[in-house]
Amino acid sequence: MRCFIAISLPEEIKKGMMAIQDRLKASGADVSWTQPEGMHLTLKFLGEIEEKMPPQIETVLGIVVASVRPFLLDVSGMGVFPDMRRPRVVWIGIRGNDDSLIRLQGGIEKELEMIGFPAEDRRFAPHITLGRIRSPGKAEHLLTLIEEEKDMELDGFKVSDVHLIQSELRPAGAIYTKLYSVELKG
To answer: Which of 28, 100, 114, 132 is deepest in the core (most CB within 10 A)?
Structure first.
């Protein structure tokens, strides 16, 4: 099963992101837009895992969250990965007021590495994917709109739990199922 560890977003944050998507869609660019149920802050993509792994992952998450208190995140900033010359992913930024998010993600990365999940090569860049650009040749107007919105801000939200989520890829789009949640306790 294909899984990842993530923080869910409140519905009001998703609605704000969908309003931004609607403005960007007016560009006519060839983009596969993220559906609301696919909007989440991924802390660690696990890929295909064996059926026996979820209990081990739950144990790891329990260890990590024991030292992390609930915390606040801000939703601000917009851009593209990898850069404006080669845009592939449209994102909205996530920022913490302290190091709680970085400690949480780093702890998950470290503990999962100890049970066989390889560490990421790149630095963690907290973001929500708004869409994936399929044809950069038609993205000029989209990039102009993103530049105009680059300093956007939505309301912040409180993080109080982390989820192991299964993602089933289907022709009509991915189906997301929360396998379990672990509350922050620190």
So the answer is: 100
Residue 55, SS3 per DSSP: helix
- List beta partners, residue 6: 42, 163
> Exactly one of 127, 130, 154, 167 is catalytic; which is it?
127
Hey, is 59 helix, strand or coil?
helix
Supply the range of the domain harboring residue 169.
2-183
What is the pTM assigned to this prediction?
Answer: 0.94
Q: Please identify which of the residues 40, 75, 80, 159 carries the catalytic annotation.
A: 40
Distances (CA, A) of 19 to 13, 31, 152, 155, 156: 10, 16, 12, 13, 16
Number of domains in the chain: 1
CATH number for position 49:
3.90.1140.10
For residue 141, indicate whether it is catalytic. no
What is the per-residue pLDDT across 25-44, written as a single tens digit (0 to 9) for each? 999 999 999 999 999 999 99
